[in-house]
Amino acid sequence: MVSLNPITQSQSLFNKTHFQVSPCHSLSTDNFQSIFIPKRVSFQFQFPLSLRIVNMPMKAAAVVSATTAEKPKKRYPGEAKGFVEEMRFVAMKLHTREQAKEGEKEVEKPEEQAVPKWEPSVEGYLRFLVDSKLVYDTLESIVEKPAYPFYAEFKNTGLERSEKLAKDLEWFKKQGYAIPEPSSPGTNYAQCLKELSEKDPQAFICHFYNIYFAHTAGGRMIGKKVSEKILNKKELEFYKWDGDLSQLLQNVRDKLNKVAESWTREEKNYCLEETEKSFKYSGEILRLILS
Ligand code: HEM
Fold it and tell me: Might you give the EC number(s) for this enzyme (predicted)?
């Protein structure tokens, strides 16, 4: 069992090669610290001290350590249920209240407003679908030729979206729409995912989880609302799964939980900290709907 001793953990976090600049660092995150512990959300206050003290001067950290040495080990939110629940907890806090009731983030960008308030365009939605397809193509080819053997677990989960999106784009073409080339939100994210998958498996898994699971939750709601507004309620293939979706999701949750069982606490925290970046990249693609 991994030690949760605050001092040891904070020191080992600093020492990890992981904390060199991440391959897809170029996205305009506020600063390194905001990736490490998101400033604008309050979940850090519910995290064990071991995670919170990483930004404290070491002198202060030592005091915390001395006063907490005898306290029982704290659990991370969601930990008892498995690592997916931990990832979900962090993701939900990064929603705005308008997006989801568990959300805590302030609305800062157009796509963070309530979906019913959106004014989508068909051309913008097509740009979103094209860039989403590039992201799913990338994820699905990564697990087909896994850089780390455990990625192979995530082949043919039934959550794949690439073929469904190809059918939808074909439908738009038949309706007379020109299909655009992928734009920078999609190409940047695809490049980032490729690099992470080769060098940074914990970060990659965070993106993998968020992309597939977000689409089955908020993504579906977006699809419904947008279709009501601009597609005469046409139900796209992107929002249809073969088989029982809740069972498919549970199968993937089980596999993710199993994979993460062999991770150290530091690796788990590192994966959780990637969530903010996942929101930023996906948010840029979502914003295309409003372009
Ligand atoms: C307009 C944008 C979005 C809306 C309206 C939205 C809305 C929602 C809602 C309503 C849920 C379900 C909450 C529940 O279980 O009670 C959810 C879950 C979730 N969302 Fe979002 N979301 C949005 C964007 C995102 C983005 C950008 C990401 C990350 C890339 C994300 C990741 C997730 C994840 C991981 C879950 C948990 C899914 C699960 O429990 O299976 N969401 N979202």
Answer: 1.14.14.18
